[in-house]
Amino acid sequence: MRYCELTLRQPGWMRHPVQEFVREGDAVQYGELLAWTAAPDRGVEFVLFYVVGNRGPYRQALDDIDAVRWVRTSPVDDGTFYSFVCERTREADLAFREAFADLELVVVYPIAFDGSGDVHLSLVGEASSFQQLLKGLPSDVDAEVRTLGEFDHRHGTAASALTARQYEAVQTAVELGYYDTPARADLEDVGGALDCAASTAWNLLSKAEEAVMRRVVSGASG
Predict the structure, then answer these.
(1) 160-221 has which fold?
(2) Could you report the average pLDDT of every consecutive run of 10 residues in the chain (222 residues)?
(3) Which helix (H) or strand (E) holds 176?
(4) Suppose 14 and one of 3, 10, 139, 161 were both cysteines; which one would form an S-S bond, judging by CB atoms 3.0 to 4.6 Å apart?
(5) What is the pTM of this model?
(6) How is 43-109 classified by DSSP, letter by letter?
(7) Environment class of residue 46 by beta-carbon count within 10 Å: exposed (0-12), middle (13-18) or buried (19+)?
């Protein structure tokens, strides 16, 4: 089986109101759609998210969305939480999903959403189906293929192993070029951006790297 890692930048009419909330503010830095179940006879669906951000503003934003029937949140630690949502199925979502089903493609969870509202997802299917999907996307959808290869999903969700502060440190380090080859930033730069000492930045990144590697290895051996 082949897989494709894809980033989609959707136009406003296709984006979910939560994506708009993430784009317009700084309350949420990252989210993962972990699981999804539809109840077509009731016109609703149930969705489970993992979220890095401020739970209060997030909860208020969802309470203000007409399509959301109810939302329940559960804290993981300071700055991360799970969100269990029941919402009305939108026409834009149906059209989006049908495009994948018609091409016999499977979406592999989690689906990630970053602070800009962009969607990062993995698909499994035939290479020809990936090509057809890209050609068939609306002209106002910007699609970036990040990876193509043989499907091998033995690792878990790495980001969910991090605390909110560790995720912020990793995100900052990546954006500054700390992990580039050659590196464009050092620990002093990362610490400055995080408003902490270089030693604190090193500690955050080291613990994050350890957590991610343990998650990857435990998933591969499971």
Answers:
(1) Arc Repressor Mutant, subunit A (1.10.10)
(2) 86 84 86 90 93 92 93 91 93 73 83 85 88 84 84 60 82 93 94 95 93 67 46
(3) helix 164-176
(4) 10
(5) 0.67
(6) TEEEEEEEEEE-HHHHHHHHHT-TTEEEEEEEEEETTEEEEEEEEEPPHHHHHHHHHHHHTT-EEEE
(7) middle
